[in-house]
């Protein structure tokens, strides 16, 4: 089937939304928002409040009193939330990188420990062309790609001065790796005292749990980096929850009832780590502040927040 829809003018976009039941107080202001944000981007925020039950649905708004300004309030809340989440994850990313470098470099007494295949699990893989390879080889390819794309002066300095080894030392190389690649590296490492010590340093007694957290946090971080909607997103990664964490996390009832792929669950993990690496963080206060400006359409249940979330272990 060929795509035959034609582009709409800003006024036509407004008329389309009006025909579906959305209310407008100031159409001229709405045109400015649509011109700067785009109809399609705002569609992610109108969609939950429209009838999308079938291919033939007319996408009418399911309530009669939804205003364009309500959609903008929700959009702005999501943008502020994304900024808070991104800033918190940055602290975690920096701490994970620093501890990986310090613990393994000191333990092995080697600047290039991360290139030692023997410290990683042996896992068979296939590359994009279907050729047999290993998880280690794919990881090294990712690392080389990220180092080669880096414009950092310290990377350039290394290559201007040294010919061997091929990659810069751990304290340079890991500094330019994405959180996603750091997560892959940690997950692929064999069980060891070093791997356990890193998880323990973040208050967890199971390195597999910490690897899962890193993976989940990296996925949410990428959503933030690409300015994607997060307030009611369902992640592709289910967060595994601790039952024997070193510090207060969540009570057993809440652990059984929260959704492992909703925002609240990964926020609990982020708050737990932030409490360790940045005890004076104002993450909770900032979340409460932007919730107060979330508008008429904000539903914390859609984000997975229990009604009593402010009084639960990690949030006290």
Order of helices and strands: HHHHEEHHHHHHHHH
Mean pLDDT across residues: 96
Number of strands: 2
Strand order of the largest sheet: 1-2
Which percent bin holds the helix content? 40-55%
Spans where pLDDT lies below 50 across 5 or more residues: none
Label the structural class.
mainly alpha
The number of domains is 2
Number of H- or I-type helical stretches: 13
C-alpha Rg (nearest Å): 23 Å
Q: Report the span from N to C terminus.
A: 55 Å
Strand percentage lies at under 5%
Largest sheet features: 2 strands, antiparallel
Care to give the gist of this entry?
Helix content is 53%, strand content 2%. The chain is mainly α and 316 residues long. The longest helix is centred in the first third of the chain and has 41 residues.
Fold and architecture overview:
- The protein is an all-alpha fold and about 325 residues long.
- The chain folds into 2 domains: about 10-50 and about 60-65, no CATH class; about 75-315, no CATH class.
- It has helices at about 10-20, 25-35, 40-45, 70-110, 135-150, 155-160, 170-175, 180-190, 195-200, 205-225, 250-255, 265-275, 285-290, and strands at about 125, 130-135.
- Strands 1-2 form a two-stranded antiparallel sheet.
- Helix 5 packs antiparallel against helix 8, helix 8 packs antiparallel against helix 10 (about 205-225) and helix 9 packs across helix 10 (about 205-225).
- The longest helix is centred in the first third of the chain and has 41 residues, at about 70-110.
- The relative contact order is 0.11.
